[in-house]
């Protein structure tokens, strides 16, 4: 390849197209890893990781062709790894992941470190798994706490009784007055199975302060409803869910203000309506 005259880049417009961006949860996960190893230079990964991959037959420049014994081991390990990651995300036992006791709201950035370090040089593996099983990427800015700048995130997977959020039920959540977002706030609903945005009849499975017609209470608080059908009289403050599908949500605050950081303002919990 001529470094001074690289080949033209081909940009593909994927707007409006449906495609799966979720990594495999079975044996083919290892085939995905092998593809990355073959495509990328070795120094794109650390020697420790490359050594672990080599131990199961994944090495740059060599075919990945596990025998039946190894394929069974890897198939079982993918299933166990997937189940473990799901448990860490959806039913975390890390007390420090939650904003307050007895609350469903938790942070994707446990410990406040984008590197998931719980001590210098010590990785919090459960915290990293919790983030990356649900999300895709991270930057220092996403975990940095700066009043009025950037964004802050809170995730919820269960209702006020600790039960998983059910797409066939209707829930109400109360956001107390003076929501601490200088720019805007929003909820986005995700499918538990795919960890992608929930596919509904609406254009987007979300709601926020920028939505036209959203009802703000006289004291500046907001009540939002989640369910398969819009409750009568609350249509503009409703997010659709799908019966038979579990879901979770992220509350995003853009331009977060001090009451969020010092916890003098907290979102309500998901209360079952019907």
Tell me what you see in this structure.
The protein is an alpha+beta fold and 274 residues long. It folds into two domains: 62 residues, VPA0735-like fold, CATH 1.10.3360.10; 153 residues, Jelly Rolls (Sandwich). Helices cover 23% and strands 19% of the residues. A four-stranded antiparallel sheet has the order 3-9-5-6. The termini are far apart. The model has no long low-confidence stretch (mean pLDDT 93).
Keywords summarizing the entry:
274 residues; 10 strands; single chain; Jelly Rolls; four-stranded mixed beta sheet; 6 helices; four-stranded antiparallel beta sheet; alpha+beta
Question: Quick one: CATH class of the largest domain?
Answer: Mainly Beta
The tally of beta strands, per DSSP, is 10
Q: What's the helical proportion of residues?
A: 10-25%
Mean pLDDT: 93
Query: What's the total helix number?
Result: 6
Q: Alpha-carbon distance between the termini?
A: 63 Å
Compute the CA-based radius of gyration.
22 Å
Structural class: alpha+beta
CATH superfamily of the largest domain: Domain of unknown function DUF1214, C-terminal domain
Domain unit count: 2
Q: What is the fold-level CATH name, i.e. the topology of the largest domain?
A: Jelly Rolls
Layout of SSEs?
Blueprint lengths: L27 H12 L7 H9 L12 H23 L26 E3 L2 E2 L1 H10 L5 H4 L7 E6 L14 E5 L5 E11 L14 E3 L13 E6 L10 E3 L6 E10 L1 H4 L9 E2 L2
Parallel strand pairs: 7-8
Antiparallel strand pairs: 1-2, 3-9, 4-7, 4-10, 5-6, 5-9
Helix pairs in contact: 3-4
């Amino acid at each position: 390849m001529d470094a001074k005259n690289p080949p033209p880049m081909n940009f593909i417009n994927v707007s409006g197209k449906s495609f799966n961006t979720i990594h495999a949860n079975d044996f083919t996960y290892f085939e995905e890893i092998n593809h990355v190893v073959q495509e990328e230079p070795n120094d794109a990964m650390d020697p420790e990781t490359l050594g672990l991959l080599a131990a199961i037959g994944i090495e740059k420049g060599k075919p990945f062709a596990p025998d039946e014994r190894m394929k069974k081991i890897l198939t079982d390990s993918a299933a166990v790894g997937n189940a473990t990651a799901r448990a860490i995300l959806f039913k975390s036992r890390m007390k420090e992941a939650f904003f307050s006791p007895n609350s469903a709201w938790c942070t994707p950035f446990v410990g406040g470190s984008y590197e998931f370090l719980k001590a210098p040089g010590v990785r919090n593996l459960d915290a990293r798994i919790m983030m990356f099983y649900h999300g895709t990427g991270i930057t220092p800015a996403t975990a940095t706490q700066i009043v009025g700048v950037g964004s802050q995130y809170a995730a919820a997977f269960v209702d006020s009784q600790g039960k998983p959020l059910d797409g066939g039920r209707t829930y109400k959540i109360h956001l107390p007055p003076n929501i601490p977002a200088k720019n805007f706030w929003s909820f986005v609903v995700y499918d538990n199975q795919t960890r992608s945005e929930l596919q509904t009849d609406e254009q987007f499975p979300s709601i926020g302060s920028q939505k036209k017609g959203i009802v703000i209470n006289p004291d500046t608080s907001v009540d939002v409803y989640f369910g398969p059908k819009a409750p009568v009289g609350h249509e503009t403050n409703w997010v659709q869910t799908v019966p038979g599908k579990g879901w979770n949500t992220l509350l995003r605050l853009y331009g977060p203000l001090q009451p969020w950081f010092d916890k003098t303002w907290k979102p309500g919990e998901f209360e079952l309506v019907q």
